[in-house]
Amino acid sequence: MNSTICFIGAGNMSRSLIGGLIASGYPTEKLRATDPNIDTCHDIRQTFAIRCEPDNSAVLNNSDIIVLAVKPQQLQAVCEELAHKLPTTKPLIISVAAGVRTTDIQRWLGEDCAVVRTMPNTPALIQAGATGLFATSQVSTAQRNDAENILRAAGLTLWVKEESLLDAVTALSGSGPAYYFLFMEAMETAAQKLGLDAKTAHLLTLQTAFGAAKMALESPDDCATLRRKVTSPNGTTERAIQSFEADQLATSVERAMQAAFDRSQQLAKQLGGQA
Predict the structure, then answer these.
(1) How far is CA 34 from CA 60, 105, 221, 259, in A?
(2) pTM here?
């Protein structure tokens, strides 16, 4: 891939993608960014040695790919501004703005725009993210590959066949890091009640979470099999699992993810001006 990529909005997600691309050897002269904050532009120039301007028009020319990395509430205004400034070559549009549907982006930018909508999560900020992607019919195979290569700079990428499935991605990996943080927080608190000091409880919780995730990633077994393998009959783990099951942990998780899914659909309507 040797496309010229322009990032609209130079916040944390753009920084993560730019940093990941540069680390993988992408030429800095092919990367551009915009941000209305002068200090942010200066910092981007100093950190990555790429061009960054406060005016979108200054860097749009000859851009093959435009990454929309502004807040979802700002996306309509940004798209409507860009609609009359896009290069005539019809660049690929990649949106990392959570919750905004491709039909709305095309309505604001132009119905014939090739749009890839993505749903990254916060670990993307440390190149350990999980991102779901959906492409409109206007997106070519080459453009799909380009989009995947860009988002892969921040971690794992997976395509979904229907845009509605991004609401499920949101409920799983988009919101998912907070679920784990909540569970880890509860483990730390419980460990302290059992007598461990705060630092010991914190470090053991983090390492246990890391080790479990690493095992799940590297093992050919699924999570259910791994759980069974570490649950000895009549042992301590079995007692804990039985307690979780008695409290209907699986049902609680299902309800929580359904709530996130429903809220994702509601927000999409609101952000698209349909509510």
Answers:
(1) 9, 19, 45, 35
(2) 0.90
- Please answer whether residues 113 and 137 qualify as being in contact, where contact means their C-beta atoms are separated by less than 8 angstroms: no
58-116 pLDDT, tens digit per residue, is 888 889 999 999 999 999 999 999 988 887 778 999 999 988 999 999 999 988 999 99
Paired sense of beta strands 129-135 and 115-119, if any: antiparallel
Place of tokens 């077994």: 221
| Distance separating alpha carbons of residues 181 and 185, to the nearest angstrom | 6
Residue span(s) of the chain under CATH 1.10.3730.10 come to 176-262
List where CATH 3.40.50.720 sits in the chain: 5-163
| 7/18 Cα distance (integer angstroms) | 9
Q: Which residues of the chain have pLDDT under 70?
A: 274-275
5-163 is classed CATH 3.40.50.720: yes
Question: 7 near 34, Cβ under 8 Å?
Answer: yes
- The Cα–Cα gap between 224 and 222 comes to 6
The CATH architecture that domain 176-262 belongs to is: Orthogonal Bundle (1.10)
The region, left, alpha or beta by phi > 0 then psi within -120 to 50, assigned to residue 162 is: beta
| 67, 96 Cβ separation under 8 angstroms | yes
Taking CA 40 as the corner, what is the angle to CA 36 and CA 42, rounded to the nearest 5 degrees?
A: 110
Sort 133 into a burial class: Cβ within 10 Å, 0-12 / 13-18 / 19+.
buried
